[in-house]
Structure formats: structure tokens, C-alpha cells
């Protein structure tokens, strides 16, 4: 049977392991992590909205550039036709044809000017909205960077504490046999981190259930002793 003095080392080791577990839980549940993740979702939403607005803006700007180019061509053509009309020297028939051409070009010019103005009314608000979204995104990214620095600092401190306890754990594990360590680690995985319990007043320190005297005797038949209720290692 395993000596209680040897099993007591497992209790000390377990305290260190539980401390490490608490630190790991603390690492994963920092309040700032929840804030960081929530803001990350908001930032991603703003980034998606900005991308959509950019797509619409780019298409609208292309349409505006095209309309302005077509308007410029029309204006040049109208200017040439008006110059030719007012210069005279044409037959009556030619003059009438040129007058009708000028009239048609002026109509096209008016239509195209209306189109350009309409596109400007679309593009300008889109540009302003994109500007505001960019500013919002920049604010989110700045805040996220602050959170990241805070998280990194907290993690560095926690990791240093974990490293110190890992060193302590390695020292405590040296006198413990390999077989007992394997059993201990297996039980820790299946028993929420508590593999060992001291038997105090007939009560298992692991599951907190009472063992009668016959049950205590049965527990000692195991090597190492095991609680008959939860099968954790018992330190008698």
C-alpha cells in the first residue's frame, strides 16, 4: 500500500495544479476580452458596411465620370455646330439642318446635365457616408489596439505566475512515481481537476461523501487507496 506521506505530496501537487487551472481560467475570462470581442464584432460590422458603400460609391463615380465625359463631348459638338450656324455662308436648307442639329444637341445637353447633377446628388452623400464610416472604423481600431495592449499585459503577468507554478509543480512531482503520476493526471482530467482527497472524519475530501468503517477498509484495499464513491485517490 502507498504510504500516506507519499500521497500527501499529491495533495501539494494538486493545490499547485488547481492554482494553475484558476490562472488559466482567469486568462480566458478577462473582462477586457469580452469587451474586445464585442467591439470586434461592431468593428467588423462597420467594415462590412464600409465595403458595401465603397462598392456603390465606386460604381456611382464611374457612372458620373462617364456622364461628365459624354457631356463634355456634347458641349464641344454643340459649340462647333453653333459656330458654324452663326458664321453663315450656308444655303437655306443647310442652315435649317444646322439649326435643327443645334436644337437637338441642346436638348441632349440639358438631359445629360440633369443626369450629371443627379449622379452628383448620389455621389456626394456616399462620399460623406464613407468618410464617416472610415472615421468610425479608425476609432474602433484605435480602441481595439488599446484593448490588445491591456490583454497582452494581463496575459504576460498571468503567464509569469503560471510559469512559476509549473516550476514548483515539476519539483513536487520528482519524488512521485511515474505510475502514480499517470493515475493522478487521468483522474484530474475526469474529475474536474480534483484527483486526490484527504479522508477527514470519514469524509472524502474529493466528493465530500461519508465512508463507513467497512467502506474505509474497502478503500484501503486499493493501491493507492481510492474512495469507493468517486474513485479519487484517498490520503488517509
Helix-strand layout with pairing:
Elements: H1 4-28, H2 31-87, H3 92-173, H4 178-190, E1 196-200, E2 203-204, H5 213-219, E3 233-235
Parallel strand pairs: 1-3
Antiparallel strand pairs: 1-2
Helix pairs in contact: 1-3, 2-3
How would you characterize this protein structure?
With 236 residues, this protein is mostly helical. It has a domain at 29-159: Orthogonal Bundle (Helix Hairpins), CATH 1.10.287. It has five helices and three strands. The protein has a three-stranded mixed beta sheet. A hairpin with a 2-residue loop joins β1 and β2 (203-204). α1 (4-28) runs antiparallel to α3. The mean pLDDT is 93.
How many strand units?
3
Structural class: mainly alpha
The total of helices stands at 5
Question: How far is the first residue's CA from the last residue's CA?
Answer: 11 Å
Shape: rod-shaped
Low-confidence stretches: none
CATH topological fold name of the domain at 29-159: Helix Hairpins
Outline:
The chain has 236 residues and is mainly alpha-helical. It has helices at 4-28, 31-87, 92-173, 178-190, 213-219; strands at 196-200, 203-204, 233-235. The protein has a domain at 29-159: Orthogonal Bundle (Helix Hairpins).
List keywords for this structure.
236 residues, mainly alpha, 4% strand, three-stranded mixed beta sheet, rod-shaped, 78% helix, Helix Hairpins
